Amino acid sequence: MSLFSVSKRTLLLIASFVWLAAGVNIARIGLEAYANGHLSILNVALSVAVGAVFWMFVFGKLVVKHTARISSYADERHFFLKFFDIPAFVIMAVMMTGGIAIRSLGLAPEVFIAVFYTGLGTALTCAGIRFGVNWLRFEVTPA
Asked: Where is the chain membrane-spanning (predicted)?
């Protein structure tokens, strides 16, 4: 076995940590923008809506898809980056690049950053939590 191979269960834990780190960081950026005078009931409601949409239509489905893919692997041990498939890594890279560009180039007003990033970060954090729950519930099949 390779030094970099881990169990299927550990792949779920890695996915949990990656999504939690991304989600908490994105939500932090949004909350910092809220702290600059953008806190209102309407904006919070919009953040909740953004988070709900991303959870229901993107990240909730992503967790189910990747958990099923990982669980279906025939072998027990895999390269540690196989918590995602290649298309998921590409999507993540595009999202990160886009988010960094939006902020660094000032392409969106701070109120957008507050609303959108808080909602998106919350949905990402929920994905990390769900991967963690799946890790806890994962049952290793006997060989």
From this structure: 42-64, 84-105, 111-133
